[in-house]
């Protein structure tokens, strides 16, 4: 049987770049060290290991990691908590925009 709940909402990094100007919530679920090595300016570091404690806005939450695997895990956790997650396919490996270090 087909389940709509099993379908993940996802965007490409190009789609994400367009959305960044609209004030979205973007969580970078990589480790703090990975985050410091280069992240999207608007991203808030919320490592996968602590994503279950996230208590932000319940509207759309964009999730990014290095390749898309950890953000997919975070997606499932946040969806179960009632959030509307959106996975960024390809993660930072596919991101071609500016990054901030530190």
UniProtKB/TrEMBL annotation:
The UniProt entry, under CDD domains, shows: RHOD
In terms of PROSITE patterns, this protein maps to: RHODANESE_3
In terms of SMART domains, this protein maps to: RHOD
Under InterPro entries, the record lists: GlpE_sulfurtransferase, Rhodanese-like_dom, Rhodanese-like_dom_sf
Which Gene3D superfamilies does the annotation name? Rhodanese-like domain
Q: Which PANTHER family match?
A: FAD-DEPENDENT OXIDOREDUCTASE, PYRIDINE NUCLEOTIDE-DISULPHIDE OXIDOREDUCTASE
Name of the featured protein: Rhodanese
**Where does this protein come from, organism-wise?**
Loigolactobacillus coryniformis subsp. torquens DSM 20004 = KCTC 3535
């Amino acid at each position: 049987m087909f389940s709509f709940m099993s379908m993940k909402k996802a965007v490409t990094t190009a789609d994400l770049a367009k959305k960044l100007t609209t004030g979205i919530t973007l969580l970078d679920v990589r480790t703090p060290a990975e985050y410091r090595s280069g992240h999207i300016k608007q991203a808030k570091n919320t490592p996968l290991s602590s994503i279950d404690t996230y208590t932000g806005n319940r509207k759309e939450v964009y999730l990014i990691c290095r390749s898309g695997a950890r953000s997919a895990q975070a997606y499932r956790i946040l969806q179960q908590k009632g959030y509307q997650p959106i996975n960024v396919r390809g993660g930072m490996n596919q991101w071609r925009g500016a990054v901030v270090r530190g």
